[in-house]
Design goal:
Elements lengths: L3 H13 L2 E6 L17 H9 L4 H19 L3 E5 L5 E9 L2 E11 L10 E3 L9 H4 L9 H28 L2 H12 L6 H7 L4 H12 L3 H19 L4 H7 L5 H12 L3 H6 L3
Parallel strand pairs: 2-5
Antiparallel strand pairs: 1-4, 2-3, 3-4
């Protein structure tokens, strides 16, 4: 059975013709409840496929500058104009009274007139006129009562989501928390010592829990999870292989290539092409 906020997200996506994405920033989010943890709308996917060099701008904008704006502004939501010119609305997620992440809905056509407020932007890059190519496909920014409805629903979603997160955190056993930290932090540098600190156990005790409950080591569980995420992205998106590598926690594309082939018997490109 779907959670109330999942039903609300489904309604928003159909009613406003947008996509949803949930970012986490400090590992307080322990379960996405089937909400995507990356921008899987066709416009962002196509852009990154055409211009892999733009990926770092997108990651920095969502993972660093937007984070700082939400944390420092004290607001519950804002509109943001990404470096590629796409307009989205982003809502702060609080878990146990602490800022834990954000929900993004979009993208919208920014239009030619005044942009909605409060607005956050670092400026649109001028070297690639992508926006003009896709503008006619994007939904317009809702006006009047429809915009108020969208923003009200977004705020209700993050309140419900934050409460669910805190409840899950309190009910989870230590080994479940380790597994969920891996699931939600695989994109970031992560090691046994960090996780042990987060769950308030010694590294040796965490290793013991991994063997007892999952029959594996922490490092292998993390690597297996990253590979499974990479496989899904290769098959279900048009993102470049270098983007897939970085998105799934591999800082070195060559290392990603070696590890992926060791796990699957195929190179990333061979694995992607097998579906054709």
């Amino acid at each position: 059975m779907k959670k109330p906020f999942e039903t609300t997200i489904d309604f928003i996506e159909k009613e406003f013709k947008v996509h949803s994405c949930m970012h986490h920033y400090n590992r307080r989010i322990v379960d996405y409840f089937k909400v995507s943890d990356h921008h899987n709308n066709p416009y962002c996917i196509e852009l990154k496929m055409r211009r892999p060099d733009y990926t770092r701008h997108c990651l920095n904008f969502d993972g660093e500058t937007t984070l700082e704006y939400l944390r420092n502004s004290g607001g519950n939501y804002c509109w943001k104009l990404c470096p590629c010119g796409l307009l989205e609305v982003v809502f702060a997620v609080y878990v146990g009274g602490r800022f834990g992440g954000s929900l993004t809905l979009g993208p919208f056509d920014p239009g030619k007139g005044p942009l909605p407020k409060p607005l956050f932007s670092v400026g649109v890059r001028k070297k690639f006129e992508y926006l003009e190519e896709v503008r006619h496909k994007l939904p317009p920014v809702p006006a009047g009562e429809r915009r108020e409805l969208l923003c009200a629903l977004g705020q209700l979603i993050v309140i419900q989501f934050g409460k669910e997160q805190e409840s899950r955190r309190q009910l989870m056993s230590k080994d479940e928390r380790v597994a969920m930290i891996i699931a939600n932090s695989y994109r970031s540098p992560l090691n046994l010592a960090q996780v042990a600190k987060l769950v308030e156990l010694s590294p040796a005790r965490v290793s013991q829990l991994m063997r007892e409950h999952y029959g594996t080591t922490f490092n292998k569980m993390l690597m297996d999870y990253r590979i499974e995420k990479a496989k899904a992205l290769l098959l279900n998106s048009r993102s470049s292989i270098s983007h897939v590598a970085k998105f799934t926690g591999f800082t070195d594309p060559a290392y990603f290539h070696r590890v992926f082939k060791k796990h699957t018997g195929k190179s990333p490109s061979e694995f992607r092409n097998q579906k054709n």
